[in-house]
Design brief:
- By secondary structure, this protein is mainly β.
- 14% of the residues lie in helices and 55% in strands.
- It contains two helices and ten strands, in the order ααββββββββββ.
- The longest helix has 21 residues.
- The N and C termini lie far apart (66 Å).
- 16% of the residues are buried.
């Protein structure tokens, strides 16, 4: 009896496979113009990050590199490495465009923390500046959440700038870090 049930199951599976092979395969999605705009941020870059210090304090400086590539024409994947206050640090940034939501989406993870940052945002009309919104732990009190706004702007084909700001009061943004990049390749 078990063999008969097993044989029937295998026969049914084969019939389903035959039917699915006879149909046209679904068309794979194609990148749209918003995806293509991400290509300008790809490449190998030399990076310098500098915190915007509180009055009377010195900025924290980090130097490193970033390798950014397009994944399937849909996502920018940027891997960063650097040295911050004598400690090695690495990060991964992903940015894509969601045609259904009509907005850019992304994530960021860093070896200096356990937070998975999730982004959404828009490209400006020039197609050179992407502004992303996210929420994460407060830098003053990690038990509280804050809103952050980050932008990635291509200044020219060999220079880009990433800035991060936190909302300190409704509609009032304070810069916290500025990263400048120079293309190596």
């Amino acid at each position: 009896m078990k063999r008969l049930v097993m044989a029937g199951g295998v026969l049914g599976l084969l019939m389903l496979m035959n039917v699915s092979q006879a149909q046209e395969p679904p068309e794979m999605p194609k990148p749209v113009k918003e995806h293509a705009l991400l290509a300008q941020f790809a490449g190998e870059w030399k990076m310098r990050a500098e915190t915007i210090p509180a009055p009377g304090e010195e900025p924290i400086v980090c130097e490193g590199k970033e390798t950014a590539r397009l994944l399937g024409g849909f996502f920018l994947v940027a891997e960063g490495e650097g040295d911050m206050m004598g400690e090695p640090m690495s990060s991964i940034l992903t940015i894509g465009y969601d045609p259904e939501k009509k907005k850019y989406v992304g994530t960021f993870v860093c070896s200096a923390g356990a937070e998975l940052w999730q982004y959404d945002g828009q490209m400006d009309s020039s197609g050179k500046k992407l502004t992303l919104s996210t929420e994460g732990p407060s830098m003053m009190d990690p038990s509280k959440r804050m809103k952050y706004r980050e932008s990635l702007e291509l200044k020219d084909k060999d220079h880009k700038v990433f800035t991060s700001e936190m909302e300190v009061a409704p509609g009032k943004w304070q810069p916290i870090v500025r990263m400048t990049y120079e293309r190596v390749k």
